[in-house]
Amino acid sequence: MKFGQLIHLIEGSVPPIVKRLRSQLKAKGMNPGQAAAVANKTLQKSGVLKKDSMELTEKGKKREKMGAAGRAKDRAAQRSGRSTKEYVYSKKTNRATLKKGK
Question: pTM to 2 decimals?
Answer without folding.
Answer: 0.77
